[in-house]
Design goal:
- By secondary structure, the chain is α+β, with helices and mostly antiparallel strands.
- It has one domain.
- Helix content is 34%, strand content 33%.
- Strands 1, 2, 3, 4 and 5 form a five-stranded mixed β-sheet that branches.
- Strand 2 and strand 3 form a beta hairpin.
- Helix 1 crosses helix 2.
- 23% of the residues are buried.
Length: 93
Amino acid sequence: MKIEFPKVPPDIASSLEGAKVVNIISFPVIVDGRRFLSDITFQALIEHFGAASEASTEIKQAFESGRERIHAATREQLATNGSRAVHLTARDF
Protein backbone atom coordinates (compact mmCIF):
# COMPACT_ATOMS: atom_id res chain seq x y z
CA MET A 1 0.00 0.00 0.00
CA LYS A 2 1.43 3.36 -1.04
CA ILE A 3 0.55 6.18 1.39
CA GLU A 4 1.30 9.84 0.73
CA PHE A 5 0.63 12.94 2.79
CA PRO A 6 0.60 16.07 0.62
CA LYS A 7 2.42 18.90 2.38
CA VAL A 8 -0.41 21.41 2.57
CA PRO A 9 -1.63 23.58 5.44
CA PRO A 10 -4.21 21.78 7.60
CA ASP A 11 -7.86 22.84 7.60
CA ILE A 12 -9.89 23.53 10.72
CA ALA A 13 -13.37 22.03 10.71
CA SER A 14 -15.97 20.44 12.96
CA SER A 15 -17.20 16.87 13.08
CA LEU A 16 -19.99 15.02 14.84
CA GLU A 17 -19.13 12.31 17.35
CA GLY A 18 -22.51 10.94 18.29
CA ALA A 19 -24.50 14.03 19.27
CA LYS A 20 -21.41 16.06 20.15
CA VAL A 21 -19.69 18.58 17.84
CA VAL A 22 -15.91 18.13 17.93
CA ASN A 23 -13.34 20.55 16.51
CA ILE A 24 -10.81 18.89 14.21
CA ILE A 25 -7.90 19.54 11.90
CA SER A 26 -8.34 17.74 8.59
CA PHE A 27 -5.48 16.76 6.32
CA PRO A 28 -5.26 15.00 2.95
CA VAL A 29 -4.07 11.44 2.51
CA ILE A 30 -3.45 9.62 -0.76
CA VAL A 31 -3.61 5.81 -0.61
CA ASP A 32 -2.76 3.96 -3.81
CA GLY A 33 -3.74 7.04 -5.83
CA ARG A 34 -7.05 7.60 -4.01
CA ARG A 35 -7.25 10.95 -2.18
CA PHE A 36 -9.39 11.56 0.90
CA LEU A 37 -9.34 13.55 4.13
CA SER A 38 -8.43 12.25 7.55
CA ASP A 39 -8.49 14.26 10.76
CA ILE A 40 -7.30 14.72 14.33
CA THR A 41 -9.26 16.26 17.20
CA PHE A 42 -8.28 19.50 18.90
CA GLN A 43 -8.31 17.54 22.17
CA ALA A 44 -5.59 15.19 20.89
CA LEU A 45 -3.50 18.19 19.83
CA ILE A 46 -3.92 19.76 23.27
CA GLU A 47 -3.21 16.59 25.26
CA HIS A 48 -0.36 15.16 23.18
CA PHE A 49 1.12 17.85 20.92
CA GLY A 50 1.45 20.92 23.13
CA ALA A 51 -1.41 23.18 22.01
CA ALA A 52 -2.11 25.48 24.96
CA SER A 53 -5.67 26.26 23.85
CA GLU A 54 -8.17 25.78 21.03
CA ALA A 55 -7.01 28.99 19.35
CA SER A 56 -6.44 28.30 15.66
CA THR A 57 -2.80 29.43 15.76
CA GLU A 58 -2.06 27.11 18.71
CA ILE A 59 -3.83 24.17 17.08
CA LYS A 60 -2.15 24.62 13.70
CA GLN A 61 1.29 24.98 15.32
CA ALA A 62 0.72 21.80 17.36
CA PHE A 63 -0.31 19.95 14.20
CA GLU A 64 2.76 21.12 12.31
CA SER A 65 5.14 20.21 15.13
CA GLY A 66 3.51 16.78 15.53
CA ARG A 67 2.95 16.09 11.84
CA GLU A 68 5.31 13.07 11.74
CA ARG A 69 3.68 11.36 14.76
CA ILE A 70 0.22 12.16 13.40
CA HIS A 71 1.12 10.67 10.02
CA ALA A 72 2.60 7.58 11.73
CA ALA A 73 -0.62 7.02 13.70
CA THR A 74 -2.63 7.50 10.50
CA ARG A 75 -0.47 4.91 8.70
CA GLU A 76 -1.09 2.42 11.53
CA GLN A 77 -4.84 2.84 11.29
CA LEU A 78 -4.84 2.69 7.49
CA ALA A 79 -3.12 -0.69 7.71
CA THR A 80 -6.07 -2.10 9.66
CA ASN A 81 -9.13 -0.16 8.48
CA GLY A 82 -9.24 -1.09 4.81
CA SER A 83 -7.61 2.18 3.68
CA ARG A 84 -10.50 4.42 4.72
CA ALA A 85 -10.40 7.91 6.22
CA VAL A 86 -8.87 8.03 9.71
CA HIS A 87 -10.27 9.97 12.68
CA LEU A 88 -7.56 10.36 15.34
CA THR A 89 -8.47 11.16 18.95
CA ALA A 90 -6.44 11.55 22.13
CA ARG A 91 -6.84 7.79 22.76
CA ASP A 92 -4.75 7.06 19.66
CA PHE A 93 -1.54 8.45 21.21
